[in-house]
Amino acid sequence: MKFKSLSLALASTIAFTSTAYAQTEIQWWHAFTGRLGDLLAEQVEQFNTSQDDYTIVASHKGNYSETLNAGIAAFRAGEQPHILMVFEVGTATMMAAGGAIKPVYEVMAEGGAAFDSDGYMGAVKGYYTTTEGDMLSLPYNSSTPVLYVNRNAFADAGLDPDTDLSTWQNVDAALTALKEGGSTCPLTTAWQSWVHLENMSAYHNVPFATKDNGFAGLDTELAFNGPVQVQHVQMMGDWAADGRFIYAGRRNEGGANFRAGECALFTESSAGYAGVKAEAQFDFEIRPLPYWDGVDGAPQNTIIGGSSLWVLSGHESEEYKGVSEFLSFLSTSDIQSKWHQNTGYLPITIAAAEQTKAEGFYDENPGTEIAGMQMTANAPTPNSKGLRLGSFDQIRGIIDEELEAVWAGDKTAQAALDSAVERGNVLLRRFEQANQ
Amino acid sequence: MEKRVTFKGWLLPICLLLPQVIVTAVFFFYPAGQAVWQSLFIPDPFGLKSQFVGLGNFEFLLGDPYYRAAFTTTAVFSILVTVASLGMALFLAVLADRLIKGSGVYRTLLIWPYAVAPAVAGVLWLFMFNTRVGVVSWYLGILGYDWNHVLNEAEAMGLVVAASSWGRVSYNFLFFLAGLQAIPKSVIEAAAIDGARFWTRFRTIVFPLLSPTTFFLLVVNIVYAFFETFGVIHTITSGGPQQATTILVYKVFADGFVGQDLGSSAAQSVILLVVVGLLTVIQFKFIERRVHY
């Protein structure tokens, strides 16, 4: 009896797997849970039902860092997925791993699926493209920092909610007025290094690192201790000292404070839009990221954060054909405009942006077009194309530590940024040595 | 007068030892050997190429002031965790030992926290002390104390020490209680008849007789503070603010899995192994001499 049922189960398993194997299976490891995970699953489902040749199997492997580590460990064991989601700070690590990746432009050329690299937004694509213009990975979710305004908090403190907040000088005055008006949290932020140093540098057209922010070589050195960055961080340190800026944590902990209505201003990714819209019990508004009036070339353009899809080497050409079909599917403007509208991430193609506009989405949801405008306002310069630095996840950790020293009043902005540059350079040299 | 059990022949003792030897070899000697080997190289993350650097990784680490600072942080953290969890457990065990009614319930409840994994314990404490929604920080705010472990280094250290010690108190409590109950009542009663008060009895009789238990717990707790507290640190502070709670084992993780610097990470594991080995040798050589079995 027991043997019979066991063999039956075995037979059915074999039968089942053999039918499933009629389609080529393509593994995709990603880092999304919750709502983003559902939207991703929806894209996969739509692709799988749209054709019979390939099945995409999406697996969640933890947060961004964990997903990258899972991919690396799997590669070392020879069990790598076809597609790996890697956050933007892991870009240099992936690029340096020449033998482990199969560049997207190559996959697309061999697979023959529809692909026009000119159709992608320059400011998004640039981050993942070689200096020769070859796209190495496909941008998946890209966002850029913007300023969220709690209009009720302004009114409560006796301020006009329509106050001009386009420059940090104006923000400074507003924060002082908010504080005097009784606000317990005039300003908070998410992702301090990304918003207040990386984007800050690009937005004011000053280098974050030498060698075109690392695009031109592994022998790059950090350079974010220049006068513009020091001025900005020192100002924030002064705000922190008397409660005009409330530091909540290294990641997006500040989001909870803002969504609860406690904070008046919040610098956060444009992808935070869905969360704020869902939870905020107050009147909110999105404004462009402020800039320092008087800095030459500001405002330039902001840079992206998010992830891209890397194709890993070591698979069959039939499978790569499936990968190219899927990446082509992801780039279609229907998929992209839906993704953009649902999440607040930028559309990666120009066509998707135009489609969203034509559908009237921006008129119904004012503020959602700001991220795109801010990124495409000017043609990117070598300082505003993006960042390509090794060990950058860990360098961000160092920056976080040093900024915390400023917020706590232990260090001046100049001392903290000098120290961060020095410590980060040590890691860059290690990375250079490991990848020479 | 040592008791010796002798086996006839070799086969049986070897068979009895083999499972333990195999487990140790597979799960300890092999990975430890790998770590020592890897610490001599700077590999790229994907294992495509690697360069032999000899002791270069160790030189790099010991020349790094932040790595040396992590030693101090680890020492402070381990001493605080060990003292706090042993002290609290001993106090509770002495109370439980004197209790006659309801001691079963009391003991059972005290053992509960041990079942909570360090990472979960970390999240629980983080919720209580969250600067915005935490219950404890809210009450502290009413009392006029502005709790902010996100920026205050001492508060962050206090919080990770409390969260790490909490679950450990249960474990230590069990051993202390068993130790206390193994002390013959007649000895204590004799001292009581001689007029020794509770504190004198504790100091001159109970504590010395408890010393084997205390010594064992000391070794086990230091090893715990060195390694198993990773989950607590990762969930509560991620090593911050600045580097106030970056202990050695957290740095192994940060350099290896955030920075993908496997050479440095392997070298740190080797250093950690040596440090814990040395500590244990010191403990057995010097402290054990004072222990009365």
How would you describe the overall organization of this protein?
Chain A: Part of the ABC transporter complex UgpBAEC involved in sn-glycerol-3-phosphate (G3P) import. Binds G3P. Chain A: Keywords: Signal, Transport. Chain A: Its main location: periplasm. Chain A: InterPro entries: Bact_solute-bd_prot1, SBP. The complex is a heterodimer of chains A (436) and B (293). Chain A is α/β, with parallel strands linked by helices and 436 residues long. Chain A is 49% helix and 13% strand. Chain A has two domains: 196 residues, 3-Layer(aba) Sandwich (D-Maltodextrin-Binding Protein, domain 2); 208 residues, Periplasmic binding protein-like II (D-Maltodextrin-Binding Protein, domain 2, 3-Layer(aba) Sandwich). Chain A has 20 helices and ten strands. The longest helix of chain A has 22 residues. The radius of gyration of chain A is 23 Å and the shape is globular. About 3% of the residues of chain A have low confidence. Chain B is mainly α and 293 residues long. Chain B has a single domain, classed as MetI-like (MetI-like fold, Orthogonal Bundle), CATH 1.10.3720.10. Chain B is 72% helix and 2% strand. Chain B contains twelve helices and two strands. The longest helix of chain B is centred in the N-terminal third of the chain and has 34 residues. The two termini of chain B are 15 Å apart. The chains are: A alpha/beta (436), B mainly alpha (293).
